[in-house]
Structure formats: C-alpha cells, structure tokens
Amino acid sequence: MNKLLILRKSLIFLAVFLIAGLFPACEKDTTDLLPFDRLTDVLAFDTPKRVELSMVGVYDAAQSGFYAGGAVRGYPFGAANVEQGDNRGEDMLNVATFYAITYEATYNPTTANNDFHWQTLYSLINRANIVIEGAQNAATKGIITDAQAKAYEGEARFLRVLAHHELLIHFARPYKHTAGATHLGVPYRTTPVNTTDNLNEAVAKPRNTVKECYDLMFADLNFAEQNLPEKRSGSQQISRVTQGAAIALKTRLYLHTGDWANVVTEGNKLITKATYKLTATPEGPFAGYTSNTESVFSIENSQADNSGVNGALPVMYSIAPGRLLVAISPIIWNAPFWDATDLRRTQLAKNNGRAWFSHKYRNITTQDDWNPILRYAEVLLNVAEAQSRQGKTPEALALLNQVRNRAVTDVAKQYTDASFADAKAMTKAILNERRIEFLGEGRRWADIHRLALDPDFSTGGIPKKVRYNNTTFASWSPGKDYDANGVYIGAAATLAAIPYDDYRFLWPIPTSELNTNPTLAAQQNPGY
Amino acid sequence: MKKLWVVLTLILFSSAAVLAQRTIRGVVSGANGEPLIGANVLVKGTSVGTVTDLDGAFALELPAGATTLEVSYTGFETLEVEITSSNQYTITLQEAAIGLEEIVVVGYGTQQKRDVTGSISQVKGESISNLATPAFDQQLAGRAAGVQITPPSGILGAPPQIRIRGVNSISSGTGPLIVVDGVPILSGDRGGFTPVNALGDINPADIASFEILKDGAATAIYGSRASNGVILITTKKGSEGKAKFNYDAYVGMAQATNLFELLNAEEFVLIQNEKNKNAGGTSDIAVLQRRNDGSIVETDWMDVVFRNALQQNHVFSVNGGTEATKYYFSLGFSDQEGVAVGNSLSRYTFRANLDQKVNNWLKIGFNSGVTRQSNYGLLTGSNNLSGNTFGAMRMFPNVEVYDPNDPTGYNLDDANARTLGRGANTIEIANGIPNIRFVIDNDRRESFTWRILGNVFADVNLAKGLIFRTQLGVDGSYVDDLLWQDPRHGDGFSANGRISQAYSPFTRWNWQNILNYNNKFGENHNVGVTLVQEHQKQRSTFFQTTVTDISDLYFQENIVSGTFANQTSAGGISENGIASYLGRVNYNFANKYYLSASIRRDALSALPEANRVGYFPGGSFAWRVSEEPFWGGFKNVISDLRIRGSFAEVGNTAIGNYPYIGSYSSAQYGSQNGIAYSNFGNDQLKWEAQKKYDAGLDIGLLDNRINVSVAYWYQDNDDIILQAPTAPSVGIPGNSISQNIGRVTNSGIEVTLDAVVVSTGKFRWSSNLNFSTQNNEVKELVNNQDITGEFNIIRVGESINSIYGFEYYGVNPANGNPVYYKIDGTPVEQEISNGQYYKFDPNNPGVRGEVTTLSQTTDRKILGSALPTWFGGFDNNLTFGQF
C-alpha cells in the first residue's frame, strides 16, 4: 500500500515538475512581441515599395493632420488652409460660431485653429525631412536608384515649401515689412527630428528671417523642378507633386517677394510648354477634380479618408444637406467688378433662399472633393499681374482674359484695352479677378497679406466684414450697397477693419510651442 | 539492492500496522461554517497529527490507544474531541476572544486576518449587496480608507475612476489591478460608441468579498502591476449542506440632481436681443412665440433630456454540496434606465462555481461567469452638437420640442431641416444644432458585450502542509458596437444616414502554478512559503465598417447588403504578455512577532529586450504588543494592539503595448496607401519604479468590539514613463516621447474605525467610519518643464494636474466685461467685442485704460489642487432578526 502511495506521490511530483518546467521554455513566446499593425523604423525604408509608402505618408500629413482629441479636421491642407484663409478675409462670410474666432480675429495663443495649423504644418515638415533622409539612405544601400531618391526628395521638398509658406503668411509679417525682409519669419526646418540629438538641435534653432525663409524655399523648389517628373499616371498627375507644381508655386512665391520678372520667367515655362490648359468652363476643375487639364496640384480626399463632418469643404461650405457654415459675403457677391452674368455665379454658387453659398465642393455625403492647391488659372493670373506691374499691359490683358472670358461669355462685357485707363487700373482688375476666381479656395488671406504694404492695392490690414445676423437674402444682389468709389457701404458690415500694424494681423505662436520651446518662447509675436 | 530491502521492510511494517489502525476523517470549520484551512489536528498525548486541507478536511490514521483529538487553530479556542467509534467527525471551533478571526484573501493564497502584516482593506459582499448601482466598483465608494471612487458622468456604462492611495503616474495607467478568483481581469471602458464598464460584467451579488491591497507588503506579490494597488475579488462558493435557494430583487428610482437652471422664454428673448444689439445687430432676432390660445411657448429643455429613471435587479442563486462536491450557481438580471433620456443598460449574468474533491490528495474545480451586457447610450460630450446637455443648454427655450406638421413629428426648421425649428425667432439656431430630442429618440449608440471570466484549477496535496495548485484562467470580452445616425436630422443628415458597426474581441490567458507550504514547527514557529510561476498573454483586435447614404431608414438594425451607397472599413491589433516568478515567506513567532518577505521577477513584452526583466522585492514586520506578558492588565480595555510596517518596490505595466519601438504606422492619403513615422522610439525605456512605505497601528478595544486601524503611507514613484511633451515645431509624432523622466510622491494617513454599537438579541447595529488624507507632489519632470493643459498644469512642487488659469477679478460693473488679474496683480479687462485687453481701474470702471496683454504663458497661475486633500465614508448597518 505504501509502495503504491510512494509511486503515486512520485508520479504527482513528476507531473508537477513537468507542468512547472514548461514555463521557462515559453517565456519568449509571451514576452517577445512585435507589433502587427506597424513597421519598426528599421524596416520603413528597406524596400522600394516601402520608400514609396513613406512618401505617401508625407501627403497624409498634409491632408489629414491631427486636431484636438485625435479628430481629423483637414489640417493643414486637407481643408483647413482654405477655411482659415477664407475666414481671415472678407469675401467669404462666417455664418455660425464655427469660424467666428478666425473671422472676427479674436484668437489667442491657445485657440485651437491657429494652434493645430502650426502643429500640423510642422508635423508635415518633419515627415518630409524624414523621408528625404530615408530615401537618401535607401539609395546609398542600393534599394532605390539615385534618380528615384532625388525625385522623392523633390516631392518632399515641395511639400516642405508649401508648409513653410503657409506658416509665413499667418505667423510672420509680409516680405515687404522690412527693406531686406530681415524681420522674423518662422524656423525653417531642413533636418529630420528622429533622434534625441537632432531634437535638441531643432529646439535651439530660432526663427529665421523672412528673407532666409524665401531663399530656402526657392532653393527647395529649384531642386524639385529639376528632379520631379513632368507627368504622372492617372489621377496622380494632380494628387502628387510634379515639375509643373514646383514651377507654379514659384510664380506664387515670387509675387510675395515682388520679383515680377521671375514670376514671368517661371510662368512662361508652363505657358510655353502647354502642359496645362484651362478647362472649357469655370466649374471644370471642381466638377472633374480628379482629372482635368487645369488642376496643377490638389490634395486628394477620398470617401474613406477626408476631413470629416467637422472639416470637409463640401460640408462646411454648402447649403443643405451641407452645414452652411461659410457663405459667400455680399461684399464680393455685390461687387460692381463681378459681372452679373458671370458663369461663376451660376456654376459655382447656390442659394438656399437665405444666402449664397459656394458650389465648388459638391460631394456633401462622401466628403471626397479634392482641395485645389494650385490651378493653372492662378499661374495665368500671377503672370498677368507681374506683366501689368511691369507695364506690359497687352500681355497682361491677354492672360487676364483667358481666365475671365470663359466665365464672362457676353462679348460686350469682356475686357479690351479700352477698359483700363492705365496699367494700375489693369493690375487692380487682375487683383479683383483673383477674388472672384479663387473665391472659396482660401487664397484671399495670402493676397491681403502680401498686398498689405502695397502702395496702391493695400486693404490696409484685415478689411471690415459683414455679420451674417445683419443680413437678409436681399443683402445679396449684384451692385447693391456699393458707392461710386467701389466701396461696400452695406449696413450689414459692422465688423470693424483691423489695421495692418495691429497685433492681430498675425497669429500668435501657440502656447503648446511656448511651453516646450524656450527659444521660440522668447520670440512670440508682439501683442500676445 | 539495499533500496529494495528498505521498500520491502516498509511494506511489511505498513501491513502490520494496518491491522491495528483505523483512519478517521473529519472537517474543521468555524462557527459560521467556513472551513478552517491548516488547522492542527493532533492525537492528544502523541505526536501523531495532521493539518486540514483547503476544505478544512483531514484524514488521520489513529495509533493504538488514541482517545482524544486536540484541534487547534490560530485565533480559535483549542478544542478537545473524544474519539468515538465513528470514523467521521464534524468539528466546530469557537473563535478565541482575541483576534479578528476572518480569513483574508492575499495574492496567491489566503491568510488569517490577524496574521496579515500588510495594509489590506476587506469589504464583504453582503455589506454592499443592497446598493443599487450598475457595477460593483461604484459600490466601493466610501467603503475603505485610501480608496477613492469618482464617477465620471451620469451615464450607466461609464466606468468610475478608482484610485488607491493617490495618483501614482503621469502618463501611464493609474487604476488598480483587479483580480477575480486569482485571474487578473480587464477593466475600463470597452464601448466604441457608448461607454461600457468592463467591471459591470460582474454581478455584484456573486461577490463574496473584496480585498483591497494597498501597501508594499500586500501588493509586492503582484510586482510590476502593483503600483496603483490591487483589488482582489472572490466570488461566492458553495458550502456543504442542503441546497440553499436565494432570490434577491430590488426596484429603485434614480434622479438627476443639480441640473442647470436655464433662461425661460421671456428672459431668453430679452438677453438674445440685447446681445445682438451690443454686437452691432440692427434688428431683433428673438421673438416670443404664442399659441393660438395666446399662451406663450416655453420649453425647459433639461426636462426634455433628463428623467426619473427606473431600475430593477433580480438575482436567483443556489448553493450547497456534499463533503466532496460544492457548488454555487446564480442567474442575474438587471434592467436599468439612466437619468439621461436614451441611456439604459440590461445585463444577464450566469455564474457556476464548482469544487470537486476527487480523493484525499486531489481537488479540481472551476469558477466561471458568463455575462451579456447591453448598453444603450447617447452623445454626452460638451463639444458634440448632438451632446444631450450641450444640446439642452443651446436649444431655444421659446420653441416647441415637437411639431405635428413636420413629417418627422419633431420641431425642425422649415428652411434648414438640419437644425431645430426657429419658432418665431427670425434666425435659426447657430452652428446647425439639431433638435436634441430628435437625436436622442432616433439616433442609436449601442454596445453588446459577451464576457467570459473564469478558471479551472487542480489542487494537489503533495505532503503535509504542501499544496500544489495549477490554474488556467481566461478573460474574454467580445464587444459588438452599433452606431446609427438618422438621415432626416442630426449627425446623419449630411451623410444621408450612417451605420457603423465594430467588433472588438479581447482574450487573455493566464496560467499559474502555485506551491504553498504552511506548517508549524514546535510550539511557536509558524512558517508559510509560496512559490509561483505565472504567464499571461492577451490579444486585442477590432474591425469596423461604416456605411453612409442609407436607402431607407428602415435598414438601421444592422448593416444590410445593398442598402447603402458608401462604405469604409478599419481594423487593428495589439498584444501584450508578461511572464513572472515569485516567492514569498511568512514567519511568525507565537503570533507575536511577524516577518514577511517576497520577491517577484516579471518580464514584460512592452519594454525593450535589455530592460524587459524587473525584480520587485517587498518586506514587512508586525509586533503584537498585546501578546506580551507585560500587557496582561490592559487586556480588558485594549484587547489587541499591533504595530506593523512595510516596504516594497513595485512597478506599473499600464504603459501601452509597444512604447519603446520607433515605428511607422499606416498613413493613408486619400485613395493612396502610405506609412508614416508614428512613434519616436526609446530603447532605454524601463520599468516605472515605485517605493511604498507603510507604518500602522491596529487596536482592538473591549474584546475587539471596536477596532481601530491607523496607517501612514508614503509612495515614491520614480522613473515614471512620461509622454514627455516636445515642441510641436519639431514635428515629432504626437508631440511627445516616452521617457523614464518623472517623479511623483504621494503620502497620507488612513484611519478606519469598525464598531459594533449595539448587539442585543436580534438587533445589531454596526458602524464603519473611514477617513483618508492624501498629499500629492510632482518632484521631477523632463527638464523640470511644466506640462500645461487647457485648465491644468503639471508642475514640479505642485500637486498633479493643479488647476491653472487667470485669477478672476469679477465683472466690470460699467460694461459687463470680465476682469482678470495679471500675474503682477494689476487688473485688466477684456473687451468682449474685440477680444483686446485694457488696464482696469476699479475706481473708474467706466474709463477705458491703455491697451495691455493677458498672457497665456506668463499671467496664468495655479488656482488650486485638482485632488481632494481628504475623503472618507461613514456607514451604518442595522439588522433585526433573520429574514
């Protein structure tokens, strides 16, 4: 009996030790776990496909950056650049409280709009810099060719310029503010921040001057122009950066520095090459946003990946079932220079019996309209302005008419030489044309900003604006409430103008930055 | 050859002995029937004896001439039992006058309460079973010193915040480890569209007791997971005897209190028109609406979104068993309405616990619970246009809720169907805010959860006092989420209806091998040793599909093929594992001097390989002064006095799954797939280390009718993993890096008083009073740089998340503008119309001062602590007779 007991006990002990002995063997299975849902950084650039994926990731940062609470609201270029750019100006009209802070200039360093614009623009810049480094390393290792690496670098450098320029127009004074543009711009970041060392280096870097920023931007764009493909396949012709986009962006940037000759030089590259062509009607680039001859570069949105119900342009800008949060202001709608029969009033605007709204972004349900960043129409008007500024009015008029006459089809109302007393009058007409043509595309603020110190065409700062609650549907009527000097005198415009030298002309560097960056904390825009 | 001889000899001897001996069996239990584990059963006058097993059972071979058994157990009067011809004995021991006789569950075992040297609060299931709450965690509020329960909202599924002895981390988890019947379980919010409390899956009526482990000595055994305390939950077990049926039910009513008082219709019209005029408006925008009978239309929207809520609960259970088999089965049903219209919860629970004694050395069993929880919720965020309270505060009080002429039956705007009907007002409501009642009645946010919680185990009696247990536990939580947004109005309006469904399974396996040894050497040396191996691995996945543009609102119960125009999908996966070894030794001399030490080794998957393994030691002592001979005379008054102290180093595993890996995650750009830098890696990442110190005094007065416990504790959390904020302009993902930089200390005093106030015949009145203080201080941060939020700040030298803002002066009586103080004490007023700041002179409020600034960075200051400095509970129980 005891023998059995001993035997049994031995077996039990054996079983216990066997069970217990299994443990160390499977510890690795338990604790050696790598994520299934992301690539570790050593893998991110180790195949050509992954370099390409990483490049697309830079566009993602441009299209759907983060907002408070992890939401996506189209910061910085999915939609927000348009919404903020329009609401800082007077031609679009904030309807509810959604964009009231921007529209009424009551922002402070903690305001979410300017905070997240800043944050997501720099997030885009760092992603671009990381991909430049990753692509170069991949080329060194022979994973991709040198030419491929340079093309990726060009793409990333273009996006880096786009981001820095957006920062400059909101957080820095315009180029003309000081004689040599020696005033403060923004920190221009060209090295990736992915190690503790380069993190410390980046934080120690103060704001560059505006001049330095523009010089770096032109260097980046020149590199991009040399290394980017001229054509891409399918819709990527528009949704990814091309050589044409780099040139087109240069024409915009030279307007900001007032370098008219270079605007013309760059613009003519595209005009002579004829890669791009205006669409037959003004709605062409919007109705056919994925594929048309005019769009040079747009940020792609899809039904699965867009700025969402709190950001997407079709939702924000449209009548029901859109959220009608931003309307067209009577200031531009009634402007005498906007012909009453202009096709852009019929093709690109709609009303709900209360106000007029933009009809450029149309997919309210799927929210997948692309955000136009550069159109050939802009290149034409950029060059037209530069020509007119240099007194070359015939050239300027031809370009202006290219854009205008597809919308103003009544020959009697089209411009001729006789329409303008002098080159200044023509320049004014070109600037007015920009307000109509790019209405609802966020370009208005950039123009107010660059023209603020222009001796002839300045708005003097942030112009006076209309309050929606003061309007009725009758407030919208071409020509109404304008005096003989072309000044809007409607009683609805009760939101006072803010002069250029007021601190609110600039956005504040956000508190999130000041709290973590002693260098920039010492360089806050004055007044905040 | 020699060995064989030995064996043969043994057999011969044994056989001879069998003839003269008999074996008796028995069970030793306490007065209220609970089995006494490890009781000594000795044949009087001999050294022949044994120790009772986990069921209090023993088997003893009697030597010739045995007449009396001596049965002893710490804390109980020793009993002598006459040996009769019977082979079966049921022995009941009476509690000794001294000592708290109860058994306390400690990590990986049990101890007598009087022998526990750590700081453990025990809460008995019955003391809270009569409270009507959606989950047990709410019931713990105010029950135990040092335990703070904060409900986040009035939504039934929202898990409350549980904090044991302060806030012990900055970026990582601060909630306790929760262990049910030995298996660490998932807690927190499991819902996708509406909160679902994972702890709500446990039927409170199934809980026999909670043990809340607070100090180092008690928690060190859980090592890396212990820095926020541990709550051990033991579910009810069967007890020997006839089946006992039990039915419990309650019906209750809940009411929301402290609702906002809103403007009535007339006040609203007055104020709105005044505001509009001041803002440059030229005409009245708000107008009173009158019905045909001349009465004014007036709606109190708080009454529209809140209600008196009915809650009912039913539990049916049966328990019983034989000496070999013990069972507990229960069925529970709970149906609760929330005070927010649209919020409700229903729960079905089933529990089966079974112990089977196979023979005298083997016991097997299982504890299992299956729960079905259905949560029906709604949007409550203060930032949601469709949030219930937000909506109610923004609705016009001078319009109707319903409109029989509208096709939906609700008052929607005729010109803009996405907003609330404007009534007689000239403008519609701002920001397209929908009629909140339409949203609450028609949109759906629902979550259906299956939860499987249980373990199977085998106990093997290897030798006297030596028990081996192997236990395989599982925690499975399977969540089905449904979102429906009506196309006619509200959040689904733009998308023409939206359905989103998500499925989120979570499975955790936990395997433990436990070796427990308890013995008494000589008269006074009591030794207990525990050795454990534990492996735990979990996987959490989800997938989600969202469809919009629904063909007809009839198709809202589930996504139905072909009823939608657009679809998107999402998904994700993550894993986590921990492998551990631990040991613990308890020793006491004559129940007077206690020493205890433990060490645990954990390897955690969330840390880089070089730092993956951590060692967590703990130790404690206690001295029962009242057992000393010199105490004698005081015993009449102070019947028990014990001094104790402990120290341990523990950790925190709630640091995310892969915080150290520099990684690239998916980054879609429209239709193009991409990846992007998503986490700044840190291969130096290591454990968050916490040192716990505790010193206490336990006093029993008047035969332990009054028990007082006082403890001082101090916790020093070092190497805290901080989501160290980085400057946004450097563009690091999430603007933060996980770094072991940060230190927070917590300290406090806990006082607990238990008293039987009256105990006469059938009437009994007992009271529990507990009181805790806490003091939190942030000691170190990255470069000691403040971490500033919108209204809070984490700053060295201050309590965590202190409230941070401008000091408010008041309102400028001349114009209604708010006035604040700059940091230098000068008052400035903010002109509402343009947002600018001007110097303010209290003596001339009507005179506009010069332009100045009020800086978010330099003019804000700490306005107060966000943590309570003290809290407590006072609880009275009155019972009369037995129902």
Question: What's this model, at a glance?
Answer:
The complex is a heterodimer of chains A (about 525) and B (about 900). Chain A has about 525 residues and is mainly alpha-helical. Chain A has helices at about 1-30, 50-65, 80-85, 100-105, 110-140, 145-170, 195-205, 210-225, 235-240, 245-255, 260-275, 285, 315, 330-335, 345, 375-390, 395-405, 425-435, 445-450, 510-515, 520; strands spanning about 40, 90-95, 295-300, 325-330, 350, 355-360, 370-375, 460, 500.
Can you characterise this structure?
- The complex is a heterodimer of chains A (528) and B (883).
- By secondary structure, chain A is mainly alpha-helical.
- Helices cover 47% and strands 5% of the residues of chain A.
- Chain A has one domain: Alpha Horseshoe (Serine Threonine Protein Phosphatase 5, Tetratricopeptide repeat).
- The model of chain A has no long low-confidence stretch (mean pLDDT 94).
- In chain A, the strands form four sheets. Chain A has a two-stranded antiparallel ribbon.
- Chain A has 21 helices and nine strands.
- In chain A, helix 5 runs antiparallel to helix 6 and helix 16 (376-389) runs antiparallel to helix 18.
- Chain B is mainly beta.
- Among the domains of chain B are: 19-92, Immunoglobulin-like (Sandwich); 103-238, TonB-dependent receptor, plug domain (Ferric Hydroxamate Uptake Protein, Chain A, domain 1); 807-859, no CATH class.
- Chain B is built from eight helices and 48 strands.
- In chain B, the strands form ten sheets. Chain B has a 19-stranded antiparallel sheet that branches. In chain B, strands 10-15-16-13-14 form a five-stranded mixed sheet. Chain B has a five-stranded antiparallel sheet with strand order 42-43-44-45-46, with no helix packed on it.
- Chains A and B meet through helix 1, strand 1, helix 2, helix 5 and helix 7 of A and helix 1, strand 22, strand 25, strand 26 and strand 30 of B.
- Strand 1 of chain A pairs antiparallel with strand 30 (663-666) of chain B, so a sheet runs across the interface.
